[in-house]
Write a structure and sequence with these properties.
The chain has 3 helices and 12 strands, in the order βββαβββββαββββα. It is globular, with a radius of gyration of 17 Å. The chain has about 220 residues and is mainly β.
Amino acid sequence: MVRFVFRQSPRNICAGVLVDDDTVVTVAHCVNGFAANQMDVIVGDHDIGRVDPGEELVPVSGLEISRNYVPGTRGNDFAIVKLARKIRFTTTKQPACLPDPSIPILPANNPNSQCFVAGWGVDESGRVSSQLRSAPVQLMNLSTCNTILNSLGGNVTHVPSDMICTDTSATRTDACLFDDGGALTCRDANSRFTLLGLVSEYTCGSLPAVYTRVDNYTSAVLNRL
C-alpha cells in the first residue's frame, strides 16, 4: 500500500497499491484533476504520525486514467501511476500480486475464502486511522449488490461488471472515508492473496461497498510495466 500526497490539496487522502518497482494502481477519482507533477507517493508507510524505517517520498512521473472514466459515475474508476524512480523492495515495501486469470479467487461460500480491505481511512471512532489497518470482508454477488443498492431509490445507479461488491451485513467492517484506492485482497485457489479490487465507493459498513475490479485492467497494467 502507498499513500498519495497532493501538493495543492494536502487534506485529500487517497491510497494506492504498488504492483511493480515503479508502478502504482489506484482509482481514477483520487487522481482525476491533478497533473503528475502535483503529487507524490509515500512508500513503506505504516504510521502516518511518524516517519517509519524505510519510508520514502517518491515523485510521480506519469499518470494514465481510464479513458472511459466519467467523474461522478460508477465504472472505469481506475488509474495507473508511474513513479519517477524505482523502489527497492524490502520487507516493508512489496508489490501486490496481480490477478491471474487461470487461477480463480475462492468464492465466498468456500470455507477457505478470505478477503481483506486495507487503508488509513476513518475507523470505528470516527477518526482517520494513523496506522495502516485491514479488516475482513466477504464478496457479494453483483446481482445481489445491485438489488440492495437499487432498493434505496434516489440517484443510485447500476454497479457495472467492471466492479465488485463486498457484503458488510455480518461483520459491519468495510472501507470508509479516506480509504479510496485501498486494496481489496482475496485468497485464490493457490492460497495466494491477490489484489482483486480497489476501494471506489463505501458506506463504512452499513451497505455493500463497491470496488474497481483489477482483473479488468491487468493487461493494461502489464503493458506499462
